[in-house]
Amino acid sequence: RKMLLSKNILYSQWLMIIPIILYTGMLLYQMISNTMTGLTYPNELREGVNIEFTLALLEGKNPYGKQWLNENIPGPCYLYPFLYCSVVAALAKLFPLDIFFLHYGLTFLSIIASGGIISLMVKEQTKTKIAPVLAFPLALMFHWRYGYVGAVPDSFGFFLFTLAIFFSTREGKRNSVFVNGVITVLLFYVKQYYILLAGIFILYYIKQSKKQAVQYIFFCALLTLLSAGMVTLFFPTYWTYAFYLLKGTEVYVSKKQFLYVLEQFAYMMTIYGIFFILIIYRIYQLGKEGKLKCQWKRKGFKEPLLSLGIENKEWIQWCHFLISGLGLFYFGLNDGAYLTYYLQLWAPSLVILGLITWEEIFLGKEGRKKLIFYGLYGMIALFSLFLSHRRLPFHRLNKEDLEAWKEAYAYLDSYSKEEIYHSATTAFYAFENHQYVYDTGHVNITRESNYEIWKNSKTDRWLFPYAGKIYEQHDKHHERIREKVQEGEYGLITLVQGLDIVLDESLLEEKYEKIDTISLYLGNMAYDTQFWALKDKRAGGK
Question: How many of the other CB atoms lie within 10 Å of CB of 506?
Fold first, then answer.
């Protein structure tokens, strides 16, 4: 009878695992398919800025060099840190492949690698085959951002983030504190919000030993100072872009922004609510077992500052859960990245702790009760995948979407012998055809109103003198573009009304006529892109 029950439990596991594997295969197929399509059509409005920055590096130019400030045409206006594009540029030197493919390839590999790491962390803390198999596709969906795979630094940063958390729990590894200090500082130069890793590790190490906590803080401080010195020396304008100009993303505290944080939290609960409930139960369970009784030990440098009855591999997840959850009250205020921070910073700990808890609940059961819990486990697994799939939509370009892109590119081909003013939506075409494009996604921070704010602030002028040079350079460039429009020097102008900070319809109407407006899908967002040609000098199209 026990043998029969054991076989039934084994079969029930595979009944759950097979659908999960099939779904994972479907999701990966969609990602790869969309990636191949995205080699021609961008998945996100600001992908072009990463391509522009990488191309500048490959041409031997320093995008943060002072020499750009003396040019008539501004250099890349790039608000992300530089490490991701630098890695892609290095790969391009080793593998001279299509630059779009290298960007998308690095992102895809980062997605797969981080999914594998999360699956392995779950496997080490659970007993069934279901948990690690389920963790993998859920981890893939933490990268949800328009089209999952894109030419943006998020996924590469997420891979390093999960790698550091995994590495911290490798028992007996020498220099692990130093390595995690290195990864922490590197992450700041991939995407700034991953600096939350520092808080996670400080909380983690005070439970290991005071010595490790002090070592980690020392290494981070030392590496931060050394890297800051090198960046200042070799990339003098970097801090102006990464700190002062970045403030244009409008991260500020207000009632409206706080409600936006709560809205995203509520949305997350529609996907991961069952995991959050399980985590609450886990807290109750740990308290009941006396594992939450903490003791502060001030003596003994090699002894932990905080003593708890939680295993290290689980404790790092609690550190992740607590620090990232608190951090979202700041990063979640950014209304330009809906759910991104929640999925990348917080969701991994939700899923891992939730799966640990569920297995702790049902593994103590015996006989038929255990079989019933396996059935419920499978239902939760499949339901969590269903919710993720429904609530994190995967937009694939359908026949109509592709026809729209082809129609847009046909207009651009018709005017390829003349100068074209490109919007951010057509940046990929511009780069592929070696044409100049000004708006690659981040130039909106150079608008005249921001320039006036800088001029009226003595503090800003003293701390960020390069900002004035950058604003002035872009301001003059805006004027040159408008003059060229008034003189009819562009053969074709593409415009997304409301996004372009240089041109608008009223400026175009004297010399140009709108020949078409095409709705172009970039990931999950559609942008109505207008095509304006010189009056009485149309080179094709309709």
Answer: 7
What are phi and psi for residue 256, nearest 5 degrees? -60, -45
Strands 492-495, 525-534: parallel, antiparallel or unpaired by DSSP? antiparallel
SS3 445: helix
Which of helix, strand or coil describes residue 492? strand
Task: Kindly give the pairing relationship between strand 512-522 and strand 492-495.
Answer: unpaired
Burial of 70 (0-12, 13-18, 19+ CB in 10 A): exposed
φ and ψ at residue 529, rounded to 5 degrees: -100, 120
pLDDT in tens, 130-169: 889 999 999 999 998 767 888 899 999 999 999 999 988 8
Strands 420-421 and 492-495: what pairing? parallel
Q: Please name every residue paired with 517 in a beta bridge, in sequence order, or none if there are none.
A: 530
User: What is the dihedral sign for C-alpha 343, 349, 352, 356?
Assistant: negative
**Residues composing the chain:** 542
Report the Cα 361 to chain-centroid distance in Å.
Answer: 34
User: Residue 31's Cα: distance from chain center in Å?
Assistant: 16
Candidates 395, 430, 439; CA nearest to 149 is 395
Distance of alpha carbon 343 from alpha carbon 333, whole angstroms:
14
Q: Which residues of 161-174 are buried (b: 16+ CB within 10 A; e: fewer)?
A: bbbbbbebbeeeee
pLDDT in tens, 45-99: 889 999 999 999 999 999 998 888 888 889 889 988 999 999 999 999 999 899 9
Beta-ladder partners of 331: none
The CA–CA distances, whole Å, from 143 to 19, 317, 329, 491, 533 equal: 22, 19, 20, 39, 39
Q: H helices of 289-366, where?
A: 312-331, 340-341, 347-362
From the CB of residue 454, how many other CB atoms can be counted at a distance below 10 Å? 18
In the chain, % helix, strand, coil (3-state, to 5) comes to 65, 5, 30
Q: Distance between terminal CA atoms of the chain? A: 77
Structure-token match 């031997």, residue found: 60
Low-confidence ranges of the chain (pLDDT < 50): 1-2, 4-5, 248-249, 540-542
Residue 420: name the closest of 533, 307, 257, 264 by CA. 533
Q: What's the rounded Cα separation, in Å, for the pair 501 and 426?
A: 16
**0.85 exceeded by pTM:** yes
Neighbours of 462 (CB within 10 A): 8
Q: Residue 205 is inside which H or E element, if any?
A: helix 196-208
Nearest to 152 by CA among 104, 192, 111: 104
Q: Answer for the pair 123, 142: CB distance below 8 angstroms, yes or no.
A: no
CA angle 124, 126, 129 (to 5 degrees): 100
Nearest to 467 by CA among 475, 48, 503, 85: 475
The C-alpha atoms of residue 38 and residue 44 are separated, in whole angstroms, by 10
Which residues on neighbouring strands pair with residue 512, listed in sequence order?
A: 534
